[in-house]
Amino acid sequence: MALKENVLEQNESTLPVDSIFRNKNFLLLWGAAFLSSFGISFFLFSESWYVVNVLNLEASLGLIYIASSIPRLLFMIISGTVADRMSKTKIMFLSDFSRGVLLGGLVLWFIFGDVTLWTFVGVAFFFGILDAFFWAAESAVIPSIIRKENLTRGNSIIQMTNQASFIIAPMLAGLLIAFGSYEMVFAITAIMLFLGSILIYLMKIPKHTEEQETSEQSFFETFKEGVLYVKESRVLVVVVLTTVFMNLFLVGPLSMGLPLFVKTILNGDAMTFSLLEAGAAVGMLIGSIVVGVLNLTKKRGKIALLALIFSGLAFIGLSFSTVLWVSILMLVIFGACLSASNIPFISAIQGMIEEKVLGRVMGLISLASMGLIPVSYAMTALLLSTGIGIDQIMAGGAVLVVLYACFVYAKFHELRNVN
Questions:
Q1: DSSP summary character for residue 18
Q2: How far, in Å, CA of 245 to CA of 107, rounded?
Q3: What is the DSSP string of 257-308?
Q4: What's the pTM?
Q5: DSSP 17
Q6: Which of the residue ranges 156-165, 175-184, 192-201, 354-363 has the most confident prediction, judged by mean pLDDT?
Q7: Beta strand segments in 63-216, E
Q8: Mean of per-residue pLDDT scores for the chain
Q9: Of the candidates 74, 51, 276, 41, which has an alpha carbon nearest to the alpha carbon of residue 163?
Q10: Could you read off the pLDDT of 74-83 as tens digits, one per residue?
């Protein structure tokens, strides 16, 4: 019997894997991701530029980021549980559609009312809530629509689309503002989100018995089950801790510290800042493309840890750089390695955990990832207030990440051997 099972497994492994581009559900999700990411990038750029250039309240721009990050952090705690108890596509549809309604209302406010800083603060608050539910549902729905052999490629394509939007969308939004109006930009963004919600609505995913079993539990029992599932898995615990480490000591200092690095170390201007940001985005795009082309299905844990180590080393190189082109090169390498670490990690996790708890697990990982970035901002600000230079903070954080990744690589063979 064992020999027969081995033969069957070998035959299955030799079967050709269907092209991901023939998968209707994935193509619909990809289109929705494209419209959503470009739409959100349009909105974030135009919102920030309006506050700075029209309202002349650049010092108050932080209020908008706080208004979106705090509700996002709070609702990420439960978003994965909601994703496992409801239809994931329905959550994504309602999220995109609701954001489209919000921006449609903002356009009407521009036409008939007096738009103020608090208008954008209110919109950012609701965007933060809707973002939390959308991200958990999107991460959990991917394994439901594509085969495990294509998870790495599918995640890399979605990631590539997101990174391309961060590079291209601000330029397009700037042109629309220059030759059109803010109302036009926000109206186009609303249309993009409405179209994205329609594509999600057209996705057809069969319901599973696990979802019906989950819906019979109380909300707290469902949430507790997800936490215990992660707690009992040594691999998942290490992945969550690795995500926490990476975002506390790399992503946070980069997001908050890069403008200070440009001003105090490179003695640059806004153009210098934009070039560095573009370098990081291009690097992440390159990393996503390479990972997607290779479609890694083996040794993903090992590759992800090694890529994390190299991303930390590139960040150390950035902190010691005083020349623009060297800084850009370090950020390109950093971004490429970061994508080469994130995508295999996420793909491996999606392939190894049970679908009935997928939403909760991905929600907890999203919480560890995006939710703790405000904490990193606070840590960075506290260290700056003591007189420590931003280059020293960046170098110190990167060294900690490299040491941690090396420790995990040497100590936790389960994660290193994850396929």
A1: P
A2: 40
A3: HHHHHHHHTS---HHHHHHHHHHHHHHHHHHHHHHHHHT--SSHHHHHHHHH
A4: 0.73
A5: P
A6: 192-201
A7: none
A8: 80
A9: 41
A10: 888 788 788 8
